[in-house]
Amino acid sequence: MDKNSVYETNSFYWDTKGNEYLGAIVLPFYGAFVSEEKCQLFGDVSGKKMLEIGCGNGQSLQYHGEHKASELWAVDISEKQIKKAAQHLKACGLSAKLICSPMEEECGMPVDYFDFVYSIYAIGWTTDLEGTFRRIASYLKKDGVFIFSWSHPIHRCVAAENNRLTFKKCYFDESWYSISLDEGVITLSDRKLSTYVNALAKAGFVIEQMIEQSDDEIMRDDNSEFAQRAKMLPVTFVIKARKL
Ligand SMILES: C[S@@+](CC[C@H](N)C(=O)[O-])C[C@H]1O[C@@H](n2cnc3c(N)ncnc32)[C@H](O)[C@@H]1O
Question: Do residues 102 and 77 make contact, with C-beta atoms less than 8 angstroms apart?
Answer without folding.
Answer: yes
